[in-house]
Amino acid sequence: MLSSYLGYYSLILGFIFSIWLLFYSFVSISNKNTSLKKNIVLILFLQLFTVVLSFLSLVYSFIISDFSNETVYNNSHTTKPLFYKISGTWGNHEGSMLLWLLVLTLFIFLFIFKTKNQPTKYKLLTLFFQQIIILGFFLFLLFTSSPFNFLFPTPNEGLGLNPILQDPALAIHPPILYLGYVGSSIIFSASLAALVQKNINANWANHIKKWIFIAWIFLTLGIMLGSIWAYYELGWGGFWFWDPVENVSLMPWLCLTALLHTIVVLEKRLILQSWTIILSIATFTFSMSGTFLVRSGILNSVHTFANDPERGIFILIFLFVLISLSLIIFFFYQTKELNEKKIFWLSKETAILINNWFMMYFLSVVLIGTTYPIFLEVITNEKISVGPPFYHKLFIPFLIPFLIFMAIGPKLQWIKQDYKKIKIQQFGFFIISFLIAYLIIEKTNAEYLFTTILIAAAFYLFFISIGEFLKKNCNFSQNISHFGFSLFILSVLFNSLFSSEFSANMKIGEELKYKNGLIKFNKIETFNEKNYKSIIANFDIVDRKDTITLNPEIRIYNQPNILTSEADIKSSFFSDKFLVINLLKGDNLFNVRYQNKPFMIWIWISILFLIFGGFTGFVKKYK
Amino acid sequence: MKFFKFILIIILPFFILQKNLIANDNSILANKISKNLRCLICQGQSIYDSQSDFAISMKLLIKKKIEEGDSEKKIYQYLKDQYGEWIVYDPELNKKTIFLWLFPLILFTFGGLLIFRKVFIN
Amino acid sequence: MKKKIIYLLIVLLLIFIFTVFLKGLYKPNLYTPSQTSNKNLIEFSGKDLFSNIEITSQQLTSSKKFTIINIWASWCLPCRSEHPILMDLSKNPNLNLVGLNYKDQSDTAKKFIYELGNPFSNILVDNNGIISIELGAYGIPETFIINSNTEIVKKYIGPLTNESFKEIEKIINQ
Questions:
Q1: Helices A168-181 and A202-233 sit at what angle, rounded to 10 degrees?
Q2: Which of A116, A418, A520, B94 is the most buried (most CB within 10 A)?
């Protein structure tokens, strides 16, 4: 009870602070005073503190199972393990919106606190824009999505959290994702500020680059965690479904990655200023649009949180206010680029432009694939599905040139590549890659032409980046990331080419033949856990070489009444062995699905390389 | 010489990992089809992934139709007639979906033109 | 001039997108394909639950002016709640009420009928659910109204209610 009051009034206090900060920044901008009031940092800290306090109160309410709080009632249960009671705080709409606010206030505090060598007016402008966003979210929270609504009389028990969400990876996935996703708000605000201030230069690029790195690292990590969760927890053996919510996190990622490359060009050559700003605005716009698409119920997906049109309208209006604001400012303050520098066709700048070109294409594929059904349905009342085949068909052919450009681009010099310095050996790598790819496809009877060339292109990037490591002055962070990406493409391709599966209905004690081996269903054991009944099956997978034991599980939860299937996965560097069972009606039959998934673990390792590259880029000292 | 040793080390695993072809051709086709179908009572799962009654019955139906000799296209058409276009995940190219497929490509071309202008003209 | 055109286009685009999304919010998420024209009932056959004789859809639809196929199972709770309505419907002389027992065990199915009464002239067994899927059902209970030309005139997804009872009476008493 008390903690809900604390949480609510803390939020109100924070709201007041945010209004004050908004007015203060607005007024100070026109003020000639060049020094930032010392109190500003304090007030920003207080704004953050009130939101943190509010958030912690909600966590506390979940921990003590305070069902007088409507959000806790809807999403928790006394038998839930403590760890998941805590993570249940952000596993619902209201709590996750509070988390949004937390990250927004955290980032502006850190930004103002840590930014030292930038003009005061610029900092004030950033503050102003960020506060607009923060204010919008305070209003949204307080008026449509309060996590502190009361229920009277207090229920004895809660409605429980979906057991599928009770997983460690999923518990930390939202906070990490939000640090990236919501963190891009500061890039948005700072870019608008730089635009108004007209100081989009190398100094600014260097400064904002750090924030881009931070957001990018967390966003990539967050998306990876979501995929890992899907793979280990959802029992389907896949890790990416082109589901709307996944797409919605991918879109800002594509923008942010493009921005990461463009900012390097801006820093080095002082060109592409307008495009940089557009990308910054676009990244956060996609973050917000994503929130709209997913939470309003307009899209049908596995992850849909809330189906509330009212909330949808609020976010929609807020989103368009932000877009309109940024567009007005962009067109009003846009100046013709001072140095109309020429870009030579064979140069690193062009390579990065090409990177952006492809990134924007991939972005448009995801955007159109996700939103087209909405447009079609509203306009023609027809409903169609856009699923994985669409994305694969439009991505794969373009990945081929993309990978090749990724291999060549970093090798090009800035401004103008000296023709004499091009080494013939590079082409040797290309031919070898092609040969290897051809061998693989021929040996395994895989038929696709595109896949062959794609493997070749991925190998090319792979070899080139390994070669780069052996050089003296290699750009380590860039190389690790590009290497990671090539490894990622290779892992995904080999995994999909060489995966095999087996599906059958089996009785206890039955054994079926599979590929020079056997699948033996030995026995089942039932246990009673804290909030579910567990049926653990014991299987032996007999192979030419060895026998492994797998124990997939079926859980029957009591609150809510849901049945989940937990796969048992044995991972090794060579492959994952994946086994999942499902109960069938009657006849004591179980549906058994066994998959052999080669190189699965390399998919995660390669993303870690990608992130590590970003991390090294962030910490390295600039010359 | 070192270079070729290096390449051999990379290629070798692929010979080791020789996979036997999956025995049953029908089941490959059945899996392919069911991965391309939406489970209509689930939120965002394919027939292949779902274990709902609907999905299980659907998988049996697909198997039956394959054994009866129906082509993949015919099966999709049959299901589209019964349940509507949205049961199939792969949007076919028709009047309704032409923009879906074309827009990204148009944008790609447009982007290419912008870059061309920036780099080669001016 | 060129700039002004670009501004105008962007504004129009934004307004368009905003309107579409706004309208999209109010569209219902559950999609049931609308029947613009009556579909014909597919041909199927199955064993009767009690007599074990193989019966074809032809036989079922040829006896009366209208045939109703109701898909149910003993383990389905809403099927229990709609059962009294089926009992009432069975009294109508224009109607041949047929049951399709979906993924059920024969002893529990029979028990269900003994307990609640048998409104059906025949009950066909659909052990694996294929017949139901071929009819175009999503789940259970579902009810199909078929006329003498074997056209599916109306389909109800979910348990029948008093309202649907009245609608059905109207249709079959024409």
A1: 160
A2: A520
Classified as helix, coil or strand, A571 is strand
Identify all chain B residues contacting A357, using CB atoms and an 8 Å cutoff: 108, 111-112, 115
pLDDT reported for residue A367: 95
Q: Kindly report whether the global pTM for this prediction surpasses the value 0.90.
A: no
Across the interface, whether the CB atoms of A364 and B44 are under 8 A apart is answered no
Residues B100 and B52 in one domain: no
Rounded percentage of chain A residues whose pLDDT exceeds 90: 48
B37 and B76 belong to one structural domain:
yes
Q: Which residues of chain B have pLDDT under 70?
A: 1-24, 122
Query: Cα Rg for chain C, rounded, in angstroms?
Result: 22
Domain C39-172: CATH superfamily is Glutaredoxin (3.40.30.10)
Which ipTM value was assigned to this complex?
0.85
Same domain? B60 vs B112: no
Tell me whether A438 touches chain B (CB under 8 Å): no
The per-residue pLDDT for range A257-295, each reduced to its tens digit, is 999 999 999 998 888 888 999 999 999 999 999 888 887
Contacts with A582 from chain B: Cβ below 8 Å: 51
- Quote the CA–CA distance of C24 and C15 in Å, as a whole number: 14
Tell whether B52 is covered by a domain.
yes
- Does residue B32 share a domain with residue B81? yes
| C-alpha distance from B66 to closest chain A C-alpha (Å) | 17
Instruction: For chain C, say whether A335 makes contact (Cβ under 8 Å).
Output: no
Residues in chain B with CB shorter than 8 Å from the CB of C103 are 53, 57
Please tell me the total count of domains within chain B: 2
| pLDDT tens for each residue of A408-418 | 888 888 887 77
Q: Which residue of B has its CA nearest to A428?
A: B3
Instruction: Assess if residue B55 is contained within a domain.
Output: yes
CA distance A585 to chain C (A): 8
Chain B residues with beta carbon closer than 8 angstroms to that of C134: 61
Q: pLDDT tens across A89-121, in order?
A: 998 889 999 999 999 999 999 999 998 888 888
- Assess whether B83 and B97 both reside in one domain: no
pLDDT in tens, A308-339: 677 888 889 999 999 999 999 998 887 766 55
* DSSP of C18-74: HHHHHHHHTS-S------SSPEEPPP-EEEBTTT--EEEHHHHHHSSSEEEEEEE-T
Q: Which domain holds residue B122?
A: 93-122
Contact A520, A537 (CB under 8 A): no
Residue A141 has pLDDT above 50, yes or no: yes
Residue B10 lies in a domain: no
Q: Do C33 and B83 touch (CB under 8 A)?
A: yes
Q: Do residues B39 and B64 both lie within one domain?
A: yes
The CATH number of whichever domain residue B41 belongs to comes to 1.10.8.640
- Same structural domain, B68 and B32: yes
| Residue B38 sits in the same domain as residue B82 | yes
pLDDT reported for residue A33: 64
> Are C21 and A374 a contacting pair at CB < 8 A?
yes
Contacts of B104 in chain A (CB under 8 A): 361, 364-365, 368, 394
| Cα of A286 to nearest chain B Cα, Å | 17
Question: What is the β-pairing status of strands C39-40 and A563-566?
Answer: unpaired
